[in-house]
Design a protein that fits this description.
Helix content: 25-40%
Number of helices: 11
Bound molecules: zinc ion
Radius of gyration: 24 Å
CATH architecture of the largest domain: 3-Layer(aba) Sandwich
Strand order of the largest sheet: 2-3-8-4-9-18
Structural class: alpha+beta
Length: 435
């Protein structure tokens, strides 16, 4: 099967780049198919079928498996989900070189789940139409992060098309449920997938050196209900919820203050963000509401373990409750569902960081700036628990988690070219005798 690279004329990186860029039409076709599968969190199966076919076409061995919550629950990075796992499967394409191992192993990981579209009437483009306008392809999940999955799939394909295989193990992973827990990627880790590095083509600027911790929780509040005609004698659960959230916003301001900042976030406008993402409460207009639930996401610096963030939040809420004049007839409880995730830092001197930045410089002709992310990604699992240095670098896009999300097709092809050369440099190449 194998013959050495030295025995054949060396494959030039210029040829790799041209071949990768030549896959533009095919890349757009795959991205369109993926965006048209509305793989909202919990409903990833249709898009995973498309991915499975794409990984099979690369000649990789497919490992598809459902998330087993019982298996994950005892892991320190586990987050309780908001959804059941039945029918929700990760897809891994496994490449084991037929020829000799010459380089380092690699995980290329992306998440297939996408977030809700929000109010449809705000979208100018069909959220699942994959409409193209100039350089932009629109749709929920286009940039976050189906274009990234397309980029690494096509990078692998470019090398195969040239008659080469990566000369080390490569695992192509398309995982479910990144957007509320990361348990899809955690499940891959617990299946034993580790490597010398992992790259996740999330649509973040530059190359990620740091991400924040993120925690979700809900505050369920009981108020002091009375008839609306004497509303001033009661305390509405909704109003009490805003009182509690106001105290959290004061903590957010405190954590954003220059003296509280982690060194990687000194230049950000507003690194710490507490978001009241969903609120449900009240019964009808003529009663002071009895019940309210607020779903909240908080971010915190990577040097603060999630347990400390939790303790701080609980202290602030207890103080706010104690300060409220109606405290004796008010109560609340906290429900922890969704992310319970530590942040992490990736050393810029890690070989994968140097190799990826260097490849970007050589292929694109510019520097890839380091960036600190004020959210979370699946890179945390690899870095903190997988002994696998991991970073994010992916295609440029905008409005992810917003309205009219789009990805730049030129930048998707840039990313494909960069990843093609990066795989070749990181893993080495073997010439395949037969195509
Ligand atoms: Zn993402």
């Amino acid at each position: 099967m194998e013959s050495s690279l030295s025995a054949a004329p060396a494959l030039s990186e210029r040829t790799m780049i041209e071949t990768a860029r030549g896959l533009r039409d095919e890349s757009i076709t795959l991205l369109t198919a993926l965006v048209r599968e509305p793989s909202l969190l919990g409903d990833e199966a249709g898009a995973q079928r498309v991915i499975r076919q794409a990984f099979e076409a690369l000649g990789t061995r497919i490992h598809e498996f459902e998330i087993d919550d019982a298996k994950l629950r005892s892991h320190p990075a586990y987050s309780p989900s908001i959804l059941p796992y039945a029918g929700r499967r990760n897809v891994v394409g496994i490449h084991e070189p037929a020829g000799p191992v010459r380089g380092k192993s690699l995980i290329l990981n992306g998440h297939i789940d996408v977030v809700p579209i929000g109010a449809r009437e705000l979208w100018r483009h069909d959220p699942f139409g994959a409409e193209i306008d100039g350089d932009r392809l629109y749709g929920r999940g286009a940039s976050d992060m189906k274009a990234g999955i397309v980029a690494f799939t096509m990078a692998f394909k470019a090398l195969r098309q040239l008659g080469y295989e990566p000369a080390a193990k490569v695992f192509l992973q398309s995982v479910v449920e990144e957007e509320c827990t990361g348990n899809g990627a955690l499940a891959c880790l617990l299946e034993g997938y580790t490597a010398d590095a992992a790259v996740i083509p999330e649509p973040l600027p530059g190359i990620m050196t740091c991400q924040m911790g993120v925690m979700w929780f809900a505050i369920e509040v009981l108020g002091k209900p009375v008839h609306a005609s004497v509303a001033h004698t009661g305390v509405g659960a909704i109003e009490f919820s805003f009182h509690l959230f106001g105290a959290l916003k004061a903590l957010e301001a405190q954590w954003n203050a220059p003296k509280s900042r982690h060194g990687y976030f000194l230049k950000h406008d507003h690194p710490v963000n507490f978001n009241l993402g969903k609120i449900q409460g009240g019964e009808w207009a003529s009663s002071v509401p009895t019940y309210c639930r607020s779903d909240i996401r908080v971010g915190f610096y990577p040097d603060m373990p999630v347990a400390n963030a939790k303790a701080e939040i609980e202290r602030v809420l207890a103080d706010a409750h104690a300060r409220h004049p109606g405290r004796d007839s008010l109560s609340y409880r906290l429900v922890y569902e969704g992310f319970q995730s530590d942040g992490c830092v990736i050393d810029i001197n890690e070989p994968v960081m140097q190799a990826l930045s260097g490849t970007y410089r050589d292929v694109i002709g510019r520097e890839l700036p380091p960036s600190s992310f004020t959210g979370t990604t699946d890179a945390k699992f690899f870095n903190l628990y997988g002994d696998t240095p991991a970073t994010c670098y992916g295609p440029d896009g905008a409005s992810y988690h917003g309205i009219d999300e789009w990805v730049s097709l030129d930048s998707m092809m840039d990313c494909t070219a960069v990843l093609t050369v990066f795989i070749a440099r990181w893993c080495g190449l073997n010439r395949m005798e037969t195509r």
